[in-house]
Amino acid sequence: MKFCPECGKPLLEDALFCGHCGYRLPVLDEEKTPNNDETEHNEELLQDEEVKTEKELAQDEAEETVQDELEDNEEAINNNSENNIKQGNKKWKKIVLIILAIALVAGLGVVGFHYLNKKSQSSSTSTTTLTSKGNKKIHITLKSVEPQYSVNGEYADIDLEKTKYKWETDDKSEEAQRIVDGIKNEYFKYSQTTNLKNKDTVTVSINMSGDDYVVTGTKTFNVKFNEEPSEVDDDDRSIEERVRDKQGYVFENSDTTYLTKEQLAEIKTKDQLRIAINEIYARHGFYFKRKPTIQKYFESKTWYVKKEWLDSDSQMNWSIYEDANLKALAKLRKGNLNYDPNEPLEY
């Protein structure tokens, strides 16, 4: 049974108007127009779907939020892991560097210890053990001088090579003797060594020291020698003959005696003068690498022994005779016998 929507009275089955209030009832297509129950049901379904959709959206958003949080957490974990790894690497690097530094310091300490220990042992061997006086230096004192002379008429020169010295020391070790044996002529200071006359007074002194020794002393003596004529070259051959001899010299004793005026007068040519000057060098093994013709000449002599390292005037150590004879020969070179050092010899 249907009821009037206006007054609520019951209606006839097919009534178009309400018999009670005259309300025109709406004509509905049953096939197309659902009844209220269906409409309400559909509305409920739509509402349910909307609710479901909202829930799903909310759930999806929640899931997306959770996923984002998980990704953020994972990224944070990865970042933290990387940071931890980097920090761990830095810590390990620091630890490794510290270990290497400790090892280096320890190694240097060991090397330094061995070096100091070796040096201490060496120092002990060269000083304390040899001197038997702890760490004190060996003291050596000049006791006396026995001069030897090279006589030239009424004058004489001190022959430093043959002069003898006596020493005194309270140390009898081999080291002390080694020091004495190593004292050279140039370590002494003489008040005068050349052009001496009998009764002249000469003072000689020495003052030298090393890590483990001290050598001192001053002595004075009066010159005393027998006046004898100077030695002369007893080779009566001419300079030409002596030069051409493979064993010959221009002046055989120019390293041990002073050349006389008579000997110097024998030199007649530039080549003779050039050879006489350079043979003083050649006796020491001088290497004439910048004078090939002179080098070739002396290589023909049996007495010449070349020393390749000896090639400069500054390396030469002249005797008093050689020094004087070189100066005398240089005077001849300033005269008519002047020569070019690089010109070839005729011999």
How is this structure best described in words?
This protein has helices at residues 36-131, 174-181, 239-244, 261-265, 270-282, 292-299, 320-333; strands at 138-146, 149-152, 155-158, 164-168, 188-190, 201-209, 213-222. It is built from 7 helices and 7 strands, in the order H-E-E-E-E-H-E-E-E-H-H-H-H-H. 14% of the residues are buried. Strand 6 (201-209) and strand 7 (213-222) form a beta hairpin. The chain is elongated. It has 347 residues and is α+β, with helices and mostly antiparallel strands. The strands form 2 sheets. Strands 4-1-7-6-5 form a 5-stranded mixed sheet, covered by helices on one side. It has a two-stranded antiparallel ribbon with strand order 2-3. The termini are far apart. Helix 5 (270-282) runs antiparallel to helix 7 (320-333). Mean pLDDT is 77; it is low at 29-34, 122-133 and 229-234.
Write the SSE topology.
Blueprint: H1 36-131, E1 138-146, E2 149-152, E3 155-158, E4 164-168, H2 174-181, E5 188-190, E6 201-209, E7 213-222, H3 239-244, H4 261-265, H5 270-282, H6 292-299, H7 320-333
Parallel strand pairs: 1-7
Antiparallel strand pairs: 1-4, 2-3, 5-6, 6-7
Helix pairs in contact: 5-7
Characterize the main sheet. Answer: 5 strands, mixed
Helix content range:
40-55%
Number of strands: 7
Termini separation: 168 Å
Class computed from helices, strands and strand pairing: alpha+beta
Number of distinct helices: 7
SSE pattern: HEEEEHEEEHHHHH
Shape: elongated
Mean pLDDT: 77
- Beta-strand share of residues: 5-15%
Strand order of the largest sheet: 4-1-7-6-5
- Any idea what the radius of gyration is? 62 Å
Uncertain segments are 29-34, 122-133, 229-234
